[in-house]
User: What shape does this take?
Amino acid sequence: MKRSKKFLSLILFVFITIVSVGCGNTVQKSETNDSNSTKEQAKPVTLTVSAAASLKDSMNEIKQLYTKQYPNVTINYNFGGSGTLQKQIEQGAPADLFISAATKQMDALKKENLLVNDTIKNLLKNDVVLVVPKDSSNVKTFNDLTGTDVKKLALGEPKSVPAGQYAQEIFTSMKLTDKVQSKVVYAKDVKEVLTWVETGNADAGIVYKTDALVSNKVKIVAAAREDSHKPVVYPAAVVKATKNSNEAKNFLKYLSGNDAKKIFEKYGFKFGV
Assistant: This one.
């Protein structure tokens, strides 16, 4: 009888020990899981991206994909003429990432030491085209801009809009500057040029191919020769004043990846800069 009691006591001791160890491991695992969970919960971040107006459609689509993958990141875009965006950054406007439609504006900010230099990269290429309203039939070439059918020719403001600068170079190359200058009306960015042509407020306009492709109210009648203007290159860089350097670099890396590339190509942009 005594032996039975001792045996039962021993079994009870072993059982209690096993249960205690098990509970300890459970608590330890729970604490570890909680720790890992905390690490995985990235802090909320808002990125301000100043980007050329011609990127609006493609960048908005990319934003949807990116924020699904990184739900802690909110992306606010500031679209406009590249020269205007450059001035804003120079004056201290908040921006984490800058994407220009020409190297001129990026080079200026680099010279002023306002960019993280090792992040500067040429991201995309584009083409310059002549567009007219969908139902127009009399303008088919750049030379036709000198005719009486074109009373208003919409261009981006050359001082702040790269597309306007490219247009000037094209006219100079084709010796058309003096013949079309009196017809020119200047817009604040390339999207406004497109709108004026769409609504018939301008008889023709010079925009990027990517802008023309998203509109069903205009048609492309001519593409500028590549040797008639500087290459249309879109450089990008992280702004030095950013408080979200890692997140800005991560988004820039994403813009160079395959998912973003598919979207850019869908809108007519080219790679291989």
In short: The first strand starts at residue 45 and ends at 52. The radius of gyration is 29 Å.
